[in-house]
Specification:
Keywords: 2Fe-2S, Iron, Iron-sulfur, Metal-binding, Oxidoreductase. This protein is α+β, with helices and mostly antiparallel strands. The protein is built from five helices and 18 strands. It folds into two domains: 35-132, Rieske [2Fe-2S] iron-sulphur domain (Rieske Iron-sulfur Protein); 169-368, START domain (Alpha-D-Glucose-1,6-Bisphosphate, Chain A, domain 4, 2-Layer Sandwich). The strands form four sheets. The protein has an eight-stranded antiparallel β-sheet with strand order 11-17-16-15-14-13-12-18, with helices on one face.
Length: 369
C-alpha cells in the first residue's frame, strides 16, 4: 500500500474526539454492584450506560449480565424468573410468553411453537455483557462493537488495601450530571475548602499551599505516596503517621490508599453512568484499623460529603444547561485535563487497534486549598 494511502487509512480510522460532557467510554470495565447485592436466583434490573441490563447470579453462583429486553415483545426479562432446563442449565424465562434465554443470551425455548414450525430458537439471542467478580465487587464490560460481540482483553481492576473482610462503609448517591463532570468534580483538588467546609475538615479561611508529585499509572495517574494533609482532621482518628497515595483510573475509579504503620485503609469511589445525564457515585471503605469498629458513626460523615458534592452538582447544572465554554487553569485543573487526554487516547487506541499509550507525564503540581 502506498504511504499516502496508509496515512489516509489511519486518519480515517481515528475517531473524532468526544466533546467534554458527551459520550461514554467503551471497551472497559464499569463497577455495577457489590457481590452481596446479587442473590442467587434473583433477577435485578439496572440501567448502565443508557442500556437496560439484567444482572443476576445463578443458583450455582455464577454472575451474568444480559440485555433486559425480550426480543419478542420487549417485556423486561428481569420481571420473569430463573428456571432450570432439562440439561441442568439455568435460563431466564420472560414473564410475557415464557421465552427462555440462557445466561449467555441464547434463546433455549419458545413455548408457543408446535411441530412442523421451522423456527430454531438458538438463532435468537439477547445481548450478553461480560461480567466478572473481583474483590467482592461486580464489574460489567461494555464493548464498542456495535454487534455487542467484543470480549474483554483485560481482567477487571484490582485495588490495594481491600482488607478486613467486606467494606466497612458503603454509600451510594445519584448525581444528575454526565460522568465527565462527575469525574472532574471527584478529582478537583481546590473545591474542598468551599464545598466541604465542616468542623472535621478544612475551611475557606484556612487554606494551604500544596505541592504534590504525580506519575502515570495503569490507564490513569497517581499522586505518589505522601504524608497526610494537616488540614483534614478526619485523619486524626487514625493516629500514627498516615501516608496517602491517590490513584485515578479510567473509566471513573479513584481511590485513596492510606498506610498507618501495619494498618491499611482504602477509600474507593466508583463512578458508573446510568445514562448521559445521570451518574451513580459509590463510596466504599475497607480497613483493618480498629477505629472501624465504630464504622456506623463514620457513615454520616461520608454521606454528608456526598450530599455536599451533590448539592454543588445541582448548582452547576444551572449554568451547564446553557452549554458555556469552560475555562481550565493550571495547576489546579491539570488532573481534569489529563482525564480528557486519557479518554481521547483510550478511544483512539481502540479504534486503531493499537496499544494504549498513557499521555500523562510525571509532574509536580502546586495549588492552594
Amino acid at each position: 500500500m502506498p504511504a499516502d494511502d496508509a496515512s489516509a487509512k489511519t486518519a480515517k480510522a481515528k475517531p473524532a474526539p468526544m466533546k467534554f460532557g458527551t459520550g461514554l467510554l467503551r471497551d472497559c470495565w464499569y463497577f455495577a454492584a457489590l457481590s452481596t447485592d446479587l442473590k442467587a436466583g434473583k433477577l435485578q434490573r439496572y440501567e448502565l450506560l443508557g442500556e437496560p441490563v439484567l444482572l443476576g447470579r445463578t443458583r450455582g453462583g455464577e454472575v451474568y449480565a444480559i440485555r433486559d429486553i425480550c426480543p419478542h415483545r420487549a417485556a423486561p426479562l428481569s420481571a420473569g424468573k430463573l428456571v432450570r432446563e432439562a440439561d441442568g442449565a439455568e435460563s431466564v424465562e420472560c414473564p410475557y410468553h415464557g421465552w427462555r434465554f440462557r445466561t449467555d443470551g441464547v434463546c433455549s425455548a419458545i413455548p408457543s411453537l408446535v411441530d412442523g414450525q421451522d423456527v430454531d430458537p438458538s438463532r435468537i439471542r439477547v445481548r450478553r455483557y461480560p461480567a466478572a467478580e473481583s474483590q467482592g465487587m461486580v464489574f460489567v464490560w461494555f464493548t464498542s462493537d456495535p454487534r455487542g460481540q467484543g470480549e474483554p482483553d483485560q481482567p477487571p481492576p484490582l485495588f490495594p488495601g481491600v482488607v478486613g473482610g467486606g467494606p466497612k462503609v458503603v454509600e451510594r448517591m445519584d448525581f444528575d450530571t454526565h460522568m465527565d463532570h462527575a469525574v472532574v468534580g471527584l478529582m478537583d483538588p481546590t473545591h474542598a475548602p468551599f464545598v466541604h467546609s465542616a468542623w472535621w475538615a478544612r475551611s475557606a479561611k484556612r487554606q494551604y499551599e500544596k505541592q504534590k508529585v504525580f506519575e502515570p499509572s495503569e490507564a490513569g495517574f497517581v499522586m505518589v505516596r505522601h504524608p497526610r494533609s494537616k488540614a483534614n482532621r478526619i485523619y486524626d482518628i487514625l493516629g500514627g503517621q498516615p501516608e496517602v497515595e491517590i490513584t485515578f483510573r479510567l473509566p471513573g475509579m479513584r481511590w485513596e490508599h492510606i498506610q498507618i504503620g501495619a494498618r491499611q485503609l482504602l477509600a474507593l469511589t466508583c463512578l458508573t453512568p446510568v445514562n448521559e445525564g445521570k451518574t451513580v457515585i459509590t463510596q466504599l471503605l475497607w480497613s483493618d484499623h480498629p477505629v472501624f469498629v465504630i464504622s456506623p458513626l463514620i457513615k454520616p460523615f461520608v454521606r454528608k460529603f456526598l450530599h455536599q458534592d451533590g448539592d454543588m452538582v445541582n448548582l452547576q447544572n444551572m449554568g451547564l444547561k446553557y452549554d458555556p465554554p469552560l475555562l481550565w487553569l493550571d495547576d489546579g485543573d491539570t488532573q481534569a485535563k489529563w482525564y480528557q487526554q486519557l479518554k481521547r487516547e483510550w478511544t483512539a487506541s481502540r479504534a486503531e487497534e493499537r496499544p494504549f499509550v498513557n499521555p500523562v507525564k510525571p509532574a509536580t503540581l502546586r495549588w492552594r486549598s
